[in-house]
Design goal:
Blueprint lengths: L5 H7 L3 E6 L4 E4 L1 H6 L2 H4 L12 H14 L9 E7 L2 E11 L5 E10 L1 H5 L26 E6 L2 E6 L5 E5 L2 E6 L2 E5 L3 H7 L5 E5 L2 E4 L3 E7 L2 E6 L6 E3 L1 H11 L3 H6 L1
Length: 258
């Protein structure tokens, strides 16, 4: 059987579709969106779309909708990735206009790309059974590829090539030998979904791939970590030092000799 590309699989997905009016109130949705979103609990029709997103995703979705109000003619659809419980969704928003060019509403389309980024292929579309609230929550799926955004395209970065991840508010920058890429997922989302044997949260703003660890540096009581291929060492929080040493398999005395 030939290997199918992620693009081929994405094209076969049944997308979730939500129609919004000019004030961002939900006026219609398709069957997949009804299954995924808590329609019975939140009764989203005629309510703001932000009201039925997880709290940690609200700021991202609001930003996405704000960016869709692009001042140029024929703006491209805006793209974002958010992390909901156990799933990773790729969301696109496109503004709708009338004959005069005035905004009449928005179309929000989303795809479940969890299997694409966790390496579990082939992808199976979501079903009512897989989303049943009566089933126990599955373990969080590890990412084998990190979805990043570049010029309104989704670029999947192989996890083993990542040296570190830097937090910037609700978002992150993913660093490799080729440079840094913007990611819509926050650092906590990524820390939960990356292999804990390689990746360690060494600081509130940094997630390091210890496979690239090269030196532990000390300067007036401060500890930093030098990674192979990176010129600037990363800060290590005091509370993370012992965990770092343990994960690298060295003791405190050994570290003081370095």
């Amino acid at each position: 059987m030939p290997v199918r590309s992620p693009l081929y699989l994405l094209e076969r997905f049944d997308p979730g579709v939500v129609q919004l009016d000019r004030e961002l109130r939900v006026i219609a949705m398709n069957s997949l969106a009804r299954r995924l979103l808590p329609v019975e609990d939140k009764q989203p029709f005629e309510k703001m779309v932000l009201s039925f997103h997880p709290e940690r995703s609200v700021a991202k979705v609001k930003f996405l909708l704000d960016q869709a109000e692009c001042p140029v003619s024929n703006p491209p659809p805006m793209t974002m990735i958010i992390n909901i419980p156990e799933r990773v969704l790729l969301i696109k928003v496109s503004k709708l206009s009338d004959l005069r060019g005035d905004t009449t509403g928005y179309t929000l389309i989303f795809y479940d790309i969890t299997e694409l980024v966790s390496g579990e292929l082939p992808v199976q579309p979501m079903t009512p059974e897989s989303l049943s609230i009566e089933k126990p929550a599955p373990a969080k799926r590890q990412l084998h590829k990190i979805p990043t955004v570049s010029q309104n395209r989704i670029v999947l970065v192989d996890v083993e090539t990542v040296t570190y991840i830097r937090s910037e508010g609700h978002y992150t920058w993913v660093s490799t030998a080729q440079g840094s890429s913007f990611c819509n997922l926050n650092i906590s989302d990524l820390a939960e979904r990356l292999d804990g044997a390689s990746f360690l949260r060494i600081h509130r703003s940094y997630l390091a791939n210890l496979d690239f660890a090269e030196q532990i540096l000390r300067d007036e009581g401060r500890v930093s970590l030098k990674l192979r291929g990176e010129t600037t060492p990363l800060p290590v929080a005091r509370t993370s030092v012992s965990r770092l040493l343990e994960q690298l398999g060295i003791g405190e005395v050994d570290a003081q000799r370095t």
